[in-house]
Amino acid sequence: MKHVGKKKMIFFFSPDHYLSQWYPCHFVIDNIQFTSAEQWMMYSKALLFKDIDSANAILSIPSSKMQKKLGQAVRHFDENIWNQHKKEIVFAGNYAKFSQNDELKQYLLSTKDKVLAEASPYDKIWGIGLSIDDEMRFNMTKWRGKNLLGKVLMQVREALKA
Q1: I need a labelling partner for 98 at 20 to 30 A (CA). Which of 21, 46, 118, 159 fits?
Q2: pTM for the full predicted model
Q3: Residue 113 — left, alpha, or beta (φ > 0 → left; ψ -120 to 50 → alpha)?
Q4: Element (DSSP H or E) covering residue 92
């Protein structure tokens, strides 16, 4: 699926968009309350590399921007290990986010079979590497990024349908 109609795509790139990792919401995993999917992701990243100090700091800071900054500085980080686990971590956080918040769940399910894409011009891993204003965003062959977040969100959507 390289070309889809414009009406079959949803682009997002804003911390206040419900599909964003930074979107403020509450959910619980392993008896710990999280305030965003970003917080879960960075906390899990710190735990994966046994950086308990960073994990605790990430839980104590309400700002997604600061949580990300702490997550980028996790000690003993190994990109190969992270690449093996990052998608399952982001899936778990977003599944909890959407399954535990009925309004968000309904929003996600209302996207039906549309392609979800993070239109971040800065992120070529989680996003499409193109701006939300870039006309090339409608042509998936022109994407400069992998859109892993969009793909994970579509997997979460399918899991919630089951």
Answers
A1: 46
A2: 0.94
A3: alpha
A4: helix 79-99
Which residue segments constitute the domains of the chain, with CATH numbers given?
6-161 (1.10.357.40)
**Percent of the chain clearing pLDDT 70 (strictly above):** 96
Q: Is 94 helix (H, G, I), strand (E, B) or coil?
A: helix
| SS3 labels along 34-82 | ECCHHHHHHHHHHHHCCCHHHHHHHHHCCCHHHHHHHHHCCCCCCHHHH
Query: If phi over 0 gives left and psi between -120 and 50 gives alpha, with beta otherwise, what is residue 136?
Result: alpha
Q: Tokens 């409608």 map to which residue?
A: 138
Confidence of residue 1 (pLDDT cuts 50, 70, 90): very low
